[in-house]
Amino acid sequence: MTPAVLMLSGPLTREQVPGLCDAARARLAAAGTGLLVCDVAALGPPGLAAVDLLARLALTARRAGGRLRLRGPDPALRALLDAVGLRFEVEGLPEQREPPLGVEEAVQPGDPAG
Description:
With 114 residues, the protein is α/β, with parallel strands linked by helices. Helices cover 35% and strands 18% of the residues. It has a four-stranded parallel sheet. Strand 1, helix 1 and strand 2 (35-42) form a beta-alpha-beta unit. The protein is globular, with a radius of gyration of 17 Å. The model has no long low-confidence stretch (mean pLDDT 86).
């Protein structure tokens, strides 16, 4: 199934947040996948308005029984989200605590199996 996609572009204002949350809720319901992908590549310079919007969109997705994934976040946006303690799945990156596919851990001779 194809996930719901919400394209975000900046600059953002607080007045846009309720409408974007409504759009996210509608797209999640229509897609039926439980996954909302937010394309943030055109968001522009990150700021607190973007952090607030993404936090609210994540909450909206959770309340609808889904989850949020980011597509194309700027490294500065990822750093800002990390600084405020918000963690998001990012499309194309392995989830936390999971090694990338095709990468094996090195084993030293004499290490016990386990």
